[in-house]
Amino acid sequence: MAALAIGYWTLARFGTATVWLANGVVVAALLQLKRRPALMVLIAALVLDMLFNILRGSPWTSLVVNAATNTGMAMGAAVLTRRVCGAALDLRRPGRLARFALLAAVPASAVSVLLGMGALALIAPQPWTSWAFHLRNYIAIEMLGLLLVTPVLLLLARRHRFPSSGPAQRKVSFALVGLMLAVTTLVFWQGDAPLLFLIFPPMVLIGLRLSPTWTAGSLIALAVVSGAASLLGHGPVHLYRLPEVAGLEGVPPMVRRLGIFNLFLLAMVVTILPISTVMTERRRLEARLRARTTAAQEARRVAENAAAARSRFLAMMSHEMRTPLNGVAGFADLLAGRSDLDREAVRQARQIRESSDGLLMLVEDILDFARGDDAVSPEPLDLAAVAREAMTPSRAAADALGLTLTIDDRLPLRSRFNCDRRALRQALHPLIANAVKFTSEGGVSLRLDRAGDGVVIRVSDTGCGIAPDHHAELFEAFSQADASTSRLHEGAGLGLALVARHVRRLGGRVEVDSRPGEGSTFTLHLPLTRVPDAAAESPAPARVPVEEPVVDAATGEAAEAAVVRIPRVLVVDDHPVNREVARIMLQAFGCEVREACDGHEAVQAAAAHLHDLVLMDVRMPRMDGLEATRRIRALPDAWGHVPIVAMTADAMPEDVARCLAAGMNAHLAKPVSQAALFAIVSRALAGDLPKPAARAEAAAA
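The structure corresponding to this sequence follows.
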């Protein structure tokens, strides 16, 4: 009602209107309200429009045509807006604002005014020049009303959906709008100079900095101030010299100059509103990008924490499972080696050992499967040596079954290839173990060949074979060719799934060729890069037995003869059972054993006595094995160069890396067998262990 009153007052007072706001208000109401309230608003607008025309004294023809034109324009604009802008009606988006202007406001204004003016021309004919002039003015007035009012009302109605600005932003908004109004007042309340261009800088600044709601409100304020000044005879519009046009002699000069004013407002609307919507869209996208970046960083942090927690859990489970297994397997080994037991007792002890080995293998498979696809750490490797390592755990079972285990190495002599030792060993070990388990006679062979730029490894057996219809599911976790309760062979079904995973980590693929009764062949195609060959090694001087010269007490000179000294081994472990197992095994080798229950005692013992080998646990109270190793490496002369081997239940790759980085020579994972312990002691006494890493930083400092 207020918009209609203002419009008809300006018509009565000045004979024209700069902008017709009423239709923009009605269109916004039709778009916002439900059907019944919208219909009531439309009827009320029609009635008020007719009432104001009656008060103006308009003829009944003009009254009906004006009311019908305004009502039809509002309905048409609302329908088109809903069609082209969708249900959201968020005119902050540049595309929606452009569609509203070009496909709704302009067509509705042009068609409605054209029909209304056409009807009036039929009722009361007038010169073509005058009719075309009024048609152009009315279209501009109606279109500006739609472009100025409808967007700002829709934005205000949806402002609760948009993020609110803080006090600082509101201060900036008021300051910019105040600047614009001051410049507009200065420009339009003088008539000496055409200074319209001065209004563009503050309006552009408003479009760049403020929301479309503030921008549309600023445009309305600009239209009100500039329109009032122009209607009162002020402003640059009146500097325009009117040409003499036939047919327009009876048109007031203000009405003729209104086209210039409408062109100015139209330029403002089509320039500033798109700038505001584009900048708002950019700010919205930047805010979304920041939110998604923050969410991604948080998700990455959570994932990293979860991965770290998983690693800690797996390491702890590995340690806690291996520790009791070390006692079970160690004492079973000792019992099986005793000569005072009868055959049945020895057989039972060996069964305990084999069962513990099977349990350990299952634990390792489960933990390895839970670890996922970790990054590989390639190093120059002798692939045949890794194959022998992978075959060693299956030799006892093969010997018990009377099977042969052979390695056919067809790679060049002393050739080395870049590969991850652990991944390759854990890819080969399940294949060899399965081949032994499913073969009752004959043997298992492993063949290494070059193939193009890579290496091919084939594991073949003469066992029962696998039906072709089971080949596709072989490499799935917990899948078995025979999953019945009456199956002949045990297993969790993880081995081949781990094979596929490790081969995939190495960038290769695995194939199977098998038929029932004809054995099986698993082929690994690995794209391994060849590195420089290993140099020919000269045999290392043996240090077993350990000899010490005999010193003459009278002369202080060494005698010619030397005595054989018992090797001295320091066992460091906080678990009494582990120390006992190691002590009994080492004493069976003829070693002199000293014990320490933590890292603090180990450092004291290593400083007081010169040992040939230190077997160091890692997890211990007071001082762990890593810190103890660093302090031993800081001891002077031979005391600081004693061979140190980690004998621990921490068997993950990162655990091995930490041990070697602390200064240890090698790593021996629990549970420990007599054969493995004898091999490591022999290598230590023969000086065949790898060189220790550089001394720890704390020791070096």
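Confidence is low (pLDDT under 50) at residues 481-492, 537-544, 558-562, 695-701.
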